[in-house]
Amino acid sequence: MGKQHYQINVNGETKDVLAEPRELLIHTLREQLDLTGPHIGCETSHCGACTVDIDGKSVKSCTVFTAQVAGKEITTIEGLGTPDEMHVLQEKFREHHGLQCGYCTPGMITRAHRLLQENPNPTEEDVRFGMSGNLCRCTGYQNIVKSILAAAAEMNASKEAAE
Amino acid sequence: MIPASFEYHRPADISAALAILDEYGDDARVIAGGHSLIPMMKLRMADIEHLIDLQDIGELKGIFVEGTKVTIGAMATQHELIDNGDIARVAPILHEAALQIADPQVRYMGTVGGNVANGDPGNDMPGLMQCLGATFHLVGSGGTRDVAARDYYEAAYMTDREDDEILTAISFNAPEGGFAYEKQKRKIGDYATAACAAIVKIDGGICTAASIAMTNLSDTPIFSAEAGAALEGTACDATAIDAAVAAATGAIDPTEDNRGPVDFKMHVAGTIIRRAIERAVSRA
Predict the structure, then answer these.
(1) Per-residue b or e along A29-51, where b marks 16 or more CB atoms closer than 10 Å to that residue's CB
(2) Which residues, listed in sequence order, are joined to residue B156 by a DSSP beta bridge?
């Protein structure tokens, strides 16, 4: 089957992409849309480096075809924050040294973002369980967990301040 | 890793999906969450010319609890199962087991129907559904039919489902008594080295019903009626539990793989089966 047009919404913008049905979402994002935040790690659905948000679910974009997500809303790390206006999770990962080589970080933060939407007050155990689909080979996870808990506390504090 | 080319179909209802299956026969496969099938396609272990995506078919979705009758649409995801308060209340063994499947990302996509229909001995839901005595509902061009979970599995990836049939739903009666799903795995996301589902009902200190089924210890899930019978009519004391574990381990036939040699798996299975039974008894 040749290439087809698919409309996907990425980071708030509707994009028309031309892809064969066998094209995996990670390749469309990286190679067609120049969104190189989601990384290709293991390519076998284990490491979570390619995690993106699709209609409110954390999904490994190496294990979904672009054809399957036509019409859906996708958020990548690029949609969460920018170098000038970082997301609170990004700030906390920097502050708490939640990364070393940084390869897993976009997937970690994208997944952590969804986790905190679903559970704004996680325990350390909740964070470890909720992040168990993302592998890091540098940090030993201590500072990743610390960063996410700190982000949760700050997000809750600013929510309270706003109320 | 890039799979071989295929034609992609996204039918809006079951009859349209069946028509595509009918037209392309062996060359077509349905895809639910895709988290077993897509990795196989990427490794080119599955070569599919026509991929039929079931995501738009509303009839396959939803989780319904009416009194003690539970019906789970084939496209219900593990995440939806975990999130469902009615399931946690009437069939907490499902909640407990679903939390032990894969990882959060996979549970958002992975479906209960895909997990039971695929026939992968590593999947957790087949053994669990055998423990619950569930019924699988299938539809094909010839109409609908029901198959007991305990009769569905023939060998690894070989099931009673015909190529032109789609599994639409799973139903069972809410279990009574204590329960446990115990799973030993090397890491999050791995299949079980050994896993066991146990449901034990105790009335006045005597076991009146027990159901034991195991995962990834043979080329199919294994329901051991003998293990249940070893507990029934007893006080589930140490002797009875020893007999049940012996019956259950007598029914399995694990093979050596990267999770360990056969002796090791038999040892782990014995421990996991015992833990499942003891925890089910403690909750009964």
Answers:
(1) bbeebebebbbbbebebbbbbbb
(2) none
Cβ proximity of B91 and B134 under 8 Å: no
Collapsing DSSP to helix, strand or coil, B198 comes out as strand
Closest B-chain CA to A63 = B38
Of A20, A21, A63, the CB nearest to B39: A63
Residue B1: band (very low, low, confident or very high) from pLDDT cuts 50, 70, 90: confident
Q: How far apart are CA B166 and CA B178, in angstroms?
A: 33
pTM above 0.90, yes or no: yes
Cα B187 to chain centroid distance, Å, stands at 20
Map tokens 């539990």 to a residue. B241
How many contacts does A have with B, using Cβ atoms within 8 A?
80
Q: For B87-138, write each residue's pLDDT tens digit.
A: 999 999 999 999 999 999 999 999 999 999 999 999 999 999 999 999 999 9
Task: Give per-residue pLDDT as tens, B191-216.
Answer: 999 999 999 999 999 999 999 999 99
pLDDT of residue B176: 96
ipTM exceeds 0.90, yes or no: yes
Please compute the mean of the pLDDT values over residues B229-258 and round it to a whole number. Answer: 98
Quick one: pLDDT at residue B116? 98
Going by CATH, does the domain composed of A4-79 fall within 3.30.70.20? no
Question: Sign of torsion, CA A24 A37 A18 B106?
Answer: positive
Q: Name the residue in chain B with its Cα closest to that of A58.
A: B105
Q: Which domains does chain B have, with CATH numbers?
A: 7-52 (3.30.43.10), 59-173 (3.30.465.10), 192-283 (3.30.390.50)
- Between vectors from CA B52 to CA B81 and to CA B29, what angle results, nearest 5°? 90
Q: Which fold has domain A88-162?
A: DNA polymerase; domain 1 (1.10.150)
Q: Tell me which residue of B91, B100, B89, B54 sits closest to B72, measured CA to CA.
A: B91
For residue B43, give the chain A residue with the closest CA. Answer: A44
Q: What is the mean pLDDT of residues A61-69?
A: 98
B15: left (phi over 0), alpha (psi -120 to 50) or beta: alpha
Give residue-wise pLDDT tens across range B9-41.
Answer: 999 999 999 999 999 999 999 999 999 999 999
Residues 77-106 of A with CB under 8 A from B: none
